[in-house]
Automatic annotation (TrEMBL):
Main localization, broad class: membrane
UniProt keywords, alphabetically: Endosome, Membrane, Signal, Transmembrane, Transmembrane helix
Transmembrane regions: 303-325, 367-393, 399-418, 439-460, 472-495, 516-549, 555-583, 595-614, 626-654
Organism whose genome encodes this protein: Musa balbisiana
Name under which the protein is recorded: Transmembrane 9 superfamily member
Similarity-based family: Belongs to the nonaspanin (TM9SF) (TC 9.A.2) family.
Biological process terms in GO annotation: protein localization to membrane
Length: 665
């Protein structure tokens, strides 16, 4: 065949050139050398040395690979308000450069910038002076506030976040890791009642690397630090980074110890920033370097209890489904055996309302809008979780998860418009443009309004977490430029198709609904219906809230996907069961009831978020509390739309199924 020679050429080239692995953008491994030459000849023939090429390469053609450290935002679990690293009087490089950030990073409040900390690969250094800073009153106020609120400094080396190792005696793992180091600490000196504030001005870095056994290459697999507060002293005049310190001297092999006098934060004080850097070879391979970070939580996941809870939910769902199917099968068999008119007159239960069960509900337009939005949200979550399970949205891809969710939400507008238009046509609606506009603007408009208010509060605090105007404009552009047109396209396609026929005809005169038993009260049954779906997710919800508000990584997307599937089944089954009981009570107003039954689980989610706020968080500012409840209100609103739509779709399918399975004269 003609293809065979091309295959041979490709295979030959792959052998000659060498194949490289496939890596996601921004997360490919970086190889570092202790000594790098700029001579192309040495790159082609690494076995050559200077002696063999006889003076072709000058001695200064060698250079050590630099390891530039980047700084990220300052974070605190007490305020939830991030700030730029350079909002505090830290040492600055000659020119501050912002790293290119994706949409998700900006929305998270990340501000990644260069720093004066630059290492050389496998070149340890002791007591390297960075700079000297003299504090003014504003600097002192800012530092004390950040120390009081337990702010942490975050740094990045080769896309790895900086961690502080902490020994734990009561844990299975001997060491746990916390993201970033504290700006400083406060305490009371002996014999002094006043609280003093101390800054961590000396950093002892440790870079772990995995060395290639054949080449002199290394890959960074760990980035740790131990912060110290030390009041540096020196003799003579200050001579920049050439000054010889008496408290930290590489010539005398004197390193910083915890017993040294700490550096107090006070006005007109000179603070000297220094650091040590050590390199340690590690057996951890580059592909496994994130394992340390993903196992650093203080609250270890108790797999047995989580799986046990999920099994209980599955068991209950199976029992509910079995009871429902057995009862329904018996009812259909009984109804289909009715032959005489006298027997037909004795009918009771759900078949009696066949002439009203498909009567359009009140506020049917709004129901169409929320069902379409729920389909949009469902599609976004489903595709996002599939990508996350496949590893495309791992924590190493910083900001990737939020970026993916936003873009998928925008493009899923096509399905929102289509779904709302199809349901609108079932209700015999004719104004498809009106329903399309409502679908495109109702849910996003409410969320954007809340988000805008919260962002204004963050702006008022001068936090880096405030979304810049350009990013806000980009969000509006995505909404109006892509999402809204796609909603119109989907709505046009959905409205163009013929409306599905109802299994039974609707009577012209509505049937009177008899008085209901207390347990079939709409409010009571709706609140009961939301318990089981919430029970399917509340354990996982704890870990999600912990990762968001306590600044920890969340990575078990495979397990989350399983919980998501169980949530779908639970929402569908509990809604179908309660809908069946409602129809048996001759109450045919099931449209909104089915949506609210499973959607009420969002109420329990918000109540649990409130409980979490008062029991797990230590929020100190009113603005921070408003931010928490504002964002949790958005999350609960989205959860309501998602679960409500799942329940409604299940009930819609169920009613059409049972009324098409019985004989109706």
């Amino acid at each position: 065949m003609a293809v065979a020679p091309w295959i041979a050429v490709v295979l030959l080239l792959s052998v000659v050139v060498g194949s490289r692995g496939f890596y996601l953008p921004g997360v490919a491994p970086a190889d570092f050398q202790k000594v790098r030459s700029f001579c192309p000849l040495l790159d082609l023939f690494p076995e050559l040395t200077f002696d063999r090429v006889g003076g072709l390469i000058p001695p200064d053609a060698e250079q050590k690979d630099p390891l530039p450290v980047k700084v990220n935002k300052l974070t605190s679990t007490k305020t939830q308000l991030p700030y730029s690293f350079y909002s505090l009087p830290y040492c600055r490089p000659d020119t501050i450069l912002d790293s290119a950030e994706n949409l998700g990073e900006v929305l998270r409040g990340d501000r990644i910038e260069n720093s004066p900390y630059v290492f050389e690969m496998r070149e340890p250094q002791m007591c390297k002076i960075v700079c000297k800073v003299t504090l003014n009153d504003k600097d002192v106020k800012d530092l004390k506030e950040k120390i009081e609120n337990e702010y942490r400094v975050n740094m990045i080396l080769d896309n790895l976040p900086l961690v502080v190792p902490i020994k734990r005696l009561d844990q299975v793992a001997p060491m746990v890791y916390q993201l970033g180091f504290y700006v400083g600490a406060k305490g009371q000196p002996t014999g002094n009642k006043d609280v003093k504030y101390y800054i961590h001005n000396h950093l002892s870095f440790l870079v772990r690397y995995h060395k290639d056994t054949q080449l002199d290459l290394a890959r960074i697999v760990g980035f740790e630090v131990k912060p110290f507060s030390v009041k540096h002293e020196y003799e003579g005049q200050w001579n920049g980074n050439k000054t010889r310190l008496s408290t930290c001297d590489p010539h005398a092999k004197r390193s910083v110890l915890n017993s040294d006098a700490p550096q107090e934060v006070s006005a007109n004080n000179d603070i000297i920033f220094t650091y040590d850097i050590e390199f340690e070879e590690s057996t951890v391979k580059w592909a496994s370097r994130w394992d340390t970070y993903l196992l650093m939580s203080d609250d270890q996941i108790h797999w047995f209890s989580i799986v046990n809870s999920l099994m209980i939910v599955l068991f209950l769902s199976g029992m509910v489904a079995m009871i429902m199917l057995r009862t329904l099968y018996r009812d259909i068999s009984k109804y289909n055996q009715l032959e005489t008119e006298e027997e037909a007159q004795e009918e009771t239960g759900w078949k009696l309302v066949h002439g009203d069960v498909f009567r359009p509900p009140s506020n049917s337009d709004l129901l169409c809008v929320y069902v379409g939005t729920g389909i949009q949200f469902f599609g976004m979550l489903l595709v996002t979780m599939i990508f996350a399970v496949l590893g495309f949205l791992s924590p190493s891809n910083r900001g990737g998860l939020m970026t993916a969710m936003l873009l998928l939400w925008v493009f899923m507008g096509l399905f929102a418009g289509y779904s709302s238009a199809r349901l609108y046509k079932v209700f015999k609606g004719t104004e498809w443009k009106k329903i399309t506009l409502k679908t495109a603007f109702t849910f996003p408009g409410i969320v954007f309004a809340i988000f805008f208010v919260l962002n204004a509060l963050i702006w008022g605090e001068k936090s880096s977490g405030a979304v810049p105007f350009t990013t806000m404009f980009a969000l509006v552009l995505l909404w109006f430029g892509i999402s809204v047109p796609l909603v119109f396209v989907g709505s046009y396609l959905g409205f163009k198709k013929p409306a599905p026929e109802d299994p039974v005809k609707t009577n012209k005169i509505p049937r009177q609904i008899p008085e209901q038993a207390w347990y079939m009260n709409p409010v009571f049954s709706i609140l009961i219906g939301g318990i089981l779906p919430f029970g399917a997710v509340f354990i996982e919800l704890f870990f999600i809230l912990t990762s968001i508000w306590l600044h920890q990584f969340y990575y078990i997307f495979g397990f989350l996907f399983l919980v998501f599937l169980i949530l779908i089944v639970t929402c569908a089954e509990i809604t179908i069961v309660l809908c069946y009981f409602q129809l048996c009570s001759e109450d045919y107003s099931w449209w909104w009831r089915s949506y609210l039954t499973s959607g009420s689980s969002a109420l329990y989610l918000f109540l649990y978020a409130t409980f979490y706020f008062f029991t797990k968080l230590e929020i100190t500012k009113l603005v921070s509390g408003l931010l928490y409840f504002g964002y949790m209100l958005i999350a609960s609103y989205a959860f309501f739309v998602l679960t409500g739509t799942i329940g409604f779709c299940a009930c819609f399918w169920f009613t059409r199924l049972i009324y098409s399975s019985v004989k109706v004269d």
